[in-house]
Amino acid sequence: MIHFNAAQNWAVDFSSISLIDKIKIFFTHKWPTDVESVAIHEIGHVLGLDHSSIPEAVMYFETPSGKKKVDLTLDDVNGDQALYGSNPNVNLDSLKRKNSASKSFGLKEI
Questions:
Q1: Does residue 100 contact residue 44 with C-beta atoms inside 8 Å?
Q2: 45 is in an annotated binding site
Q3: Around Cβ 72, how many Cβ atoms within 10 Å?
Q4: Where does Zn(2+) bind (predicted)?
């Protein structure tokens, strides 16, 4: 089960934050957390992935407030494939170009 804390300041689309809210954020330095980024990260845990040591990875231990991190990195995909195998019909060339090669994906021991 994935639980989202109601006390957290969540956002779905940072571009829709009102001017008044942006002024409040400027003075309080409390940016909302992107709910989609957290959901994708937590689904990774449900699938058996642990935290990655790669800061750009979805499975990195934190997503900075005010940032959206929803694009899987090669590290995220490698971790998933280590658990569930790969699909030969999926082309990962775009991920390979976008991400540096890494073997530090996080696997959760169950």
A1: no
A2: yes
A3: 19
A4: 41, 45, 51, 59
